[in-house]
Amino acid sequence: MPCEGTRLRFPSCPTARTPFPLVPCAVVPSRRRLPRVGARMTLAAGCCQAESGPRCGGLRQRRPRRPAGEPSRPSPPPRAWAPLEAPVGVWAPLAFVTLLSFASRFYRLSEPPHVCWDETHFGKMGSYYINRTFFFDVHPPLGKMLIGLAGYLSGYNGTFPFQKPGDRYEHHNYIGMRGFCAFLGSCLVPFAYLTVLELSKSLSAALLAASILIFDTGCITLSQYILLDPILMFFLMGAVLSMVKYNSCADRPFSASWWFWLSLTGVNLAGAIGVKFVGLFVVLLVGLNTVYDLWELLGDLSLSLVTLGKHLLARVFCLILLPLVLYTAQFAVHFAVLSKSGPGDGFFSSAFQSRLIGNNLHNVSVPEHLAYGSVITMKNLRMAGGYLHSHWHLYPEGVGARQQQVTAYLHKDLNNLWVIKKHDSNTDHLDPSCSVEFVRHGDVIRLEHKETSRNLHSHQHEAPMTRKHFQVTGYGINGTGDANDFWRIEMVGRKAGKRIKVLRSQIRLTHLATGCILGSSGKTLPKWGWEQVEVTCTPYVKETPNALWNVEDHINPKLPNISLDVLKPSFPEILLESHMVMIRGNSGLKPKENEVTSKPWHWPINYQGLRFSGVNETDYRVYLLGNPVVWWLNLVTIGLYLLMATCAIVAMKRGVQLTAEFKELSEVLLHSGGKIMLGWLLHYLPFFMMGRVLYFHHYFPAMLFSSMLTGITWDTLLKFCAGRLSCSMGRRVYTYGTLALMLLIVYSFYLFHPLSYGMVGPMASDPNSPMTGLRWLESWEF
């Protein structure tokens, strides 16, 4: 059986050294870890050496002394690469690829000097943090907070409006925010290099993966602008690298380095989720890795149950509790900084808005409990649901009954005011002679519109916009109507007889005659409805925010006022509410007019890009599109990896006698490549199940994994091929194969680099354009 060695030995050339490093090639037990990068690989008994000589009992024999007068043997030829364990062999290439990464991301960073694509959103949100103005976004706050902090530290004052793409920055300092994103985007290359190096123990594989990311036009473009994507991918790759590093410390559990990498994994997980919810995919990857790790430990009979318990608790603390604490702390900072009323108020409940300085509910005093005779406004709890509203205008002919319109209106208005009365009495409860009577859960009430004196009414006419829902109108004269004006008021999660609180109680109004529930459909009425939001009575009983309301304004001179500070929600309540609003907003995202969207199957084939800047020939155009050679190489590699992995598994299962070197390569392919392949699947397949609008840039986290997989797979394939050839031929195949791949990547970047760094002049569809021959697909719009 071939013996173990640190360099691959070709069968026909026992003295040859190949230019690529290889892990010790003995058959390893399942818990054995590959040696750390940077550590010296000690030669085990029976280890192969470059020089020839007999072996005895698994130990290398002492080399016989050279007789006097015998000519000295020539020294072995120098290796093409320094050994992996030599510091210069690892860190010099790392410094080189890091330098190239920063140079490619910071080149022409100031161009174009105007707002590009989603900078209009995330740059504006950075300004909101600087001005402490509350806003709403469908993503968690960490990415925007870091952008705002970068702008603040670089001298940006938060006054640029970021109204639309194409607006020039003029004298405003935007380079700090772009530079921050470019810095984090540049770090992806060394992270990928170190991750692949740790997994494969191959310098060539690490360099190939790093080259792919350095020279990918899509990664460069996405890193040069004020966006969340480079921040998300920074934490994502940081989590993967930390996970791989703490796995490599498995032979030294509870050491300082083990704790450091385990804790850093948790920190990066909190960062990834704190930027976008898709960070949950890397959480799932780390979780599966941890479960596998613990399962392996459980099978190690040399470990006591106490030690197993320590391993479990360490992972619970570092990978669950620590990320949760850090994630929660991000929202605590978010709420503390954004203390002023702003454009995001209307997406949240009235109780939430009462926290914000400048909001009309801030520091206001109102009666706490609802009573008959009170004048109130009711706000729908769906996102941007609006206030229950009516006006003198009637529904037009052919739209249900020709009665007074009832709508939801997003702004404060006198037509939002309603008087709450008993269903069977028209008594003025504000009369001093009448005692105060509180409204309780389960009461049957009547709501009279204060401005028009018509009652809130419903019947079995169809709603104007939503089929199978009932129309809601204003009916009656001076409060006198019919039985279709009666509603049962109920609080969510409360028992009969409980009083109804202003702001805090979530209430539902059930129509007594038909059993339908008052709600806002969210649909905009035509011009006859003043483009306000439709209100309907739905016969489908569901616990949705559309059918829930809360009392916001409350006027009753017979009741004592209390400060709304008493009714302000606690931190856990606003944390929960903000997540509910973000989730609803995310699932409800729809494409804007003329916006380019895509489908998940488009992404790996680089089917269509995104315009970041410019449309016409005279514009400075930037187009987000992956380097086609890189992306199609990645796509081919996924199929190649599956084929190679299948062959390796079948060969091992069938008991095929493989050399120790080939067994070790199979271990790298299946275990190391398998982790990266799993990461790609977890970051790509879930998008097929998403109902929200999707864009091309959503694929880039998955692209990071496919690029690392390309480095590992092609390096392993070339080693397999080299091992089947003679010594000199195998070395040439491996060396020239690796160089050919790198040169192909560099040359393709030379061809397509204008996509990232800007184009001016004729479009690619024009025969006079220098990009004409590069428009390989009709769907590319540069």
TrEMBL record:
Domain MIR, chain residue ranges per copy: 367-423, 436-492, 497-554
Enzyme class, spelled out: transferase
InterPro entries listed in its UniProt record: ArnT-like_N, MIR_dom_sf, MIR_motif, PMT-like, PMT_4TMC
Membrane-spanning parts: 175-196, 202-220, 258-291, 312-333, 629-652, 673-693, 699-721, 733-753
Keyword Repeat annotated: yes
Presence of the UniProt keyword Iron in the record: no
Catalytic activity: a di-trans,poly-cis-dolichyl beta-D-mannosyl phosphate + L-threonyl-[protein] = 3-O-(alpha-D-mannosyl)-L-threonyl-[protein] + a di-trans,poly-cis-dolichyl phosphate + H(+); a di-trans,poly-cis-dolichyl beta-D-mannosyl phosphate + L-seryl-[protein] = 3-O-(alpha-D-mannosyl)-L-seryl-[protein] + a di-trans,poly-cis-dolichyl phosphate + H(+)
Record's subcellular location: Endoplasmic reticulum membrane
Molecular function GO terms recorded: dolichyl-phosphate-mannose-protein mannosyltransferase activity
PROSITE patterns hit by this protein: MIR
Chain segments carrying region Disordered: 54-80
Involved pathway(s): Protein modification; protein glycosylation
The EC number(s) this enzyme carries: 2.4.1.109
Signal peptide (residue range): none
Coiled-coil segments on the chain, per record: none
Family to which this protein belongs: Belongs to the glycosyltransferase 39 family.
Name of the molecule in the record: Protein O-mannosyl-transferase 2
Biological source species: Platysternon megacephalum
